[in-house]
Design brief:
Length: 79
């Protein structure tokens, strides 16, 4: 099973720009972001233990965060 390491930079680099709205994220996505921010790097297995979310749920939440980040990044570049 491959090891997935999630870094704070991967999730938040473009979200720190002015105008980003945290209310676009769900409560569970914010929980994940909080853990990643505190540790800067965390594996998916560690997030499972920290949050109690299943591996498949974590994968969906993380993918959604990354998609929102990319959409925000694209909007910032085009706007």
């Amino acid at each position: 099973m491959p090891l997935l390491v999630i870094s704070a930079y991967m999730l938040f680099a473009s979200m720190k720009k002015p105008g980003y709205r945290k209310e676009l994220l769900t409560d569970r996505q914010l929980i994940i972001m909080g853990h990643v921010t505190k540790r800067n790097r965390v594996t998916q297995a560690e997030l499972e233990k920290l949050t109690g979310f299943s591996r498949s749920s974590l994968s969906r939440y993380i993918n959604s965060i990354v998609k929102k980040r990319n959409a925000y990044k694209g909007a910032a570049l085009n706007g």
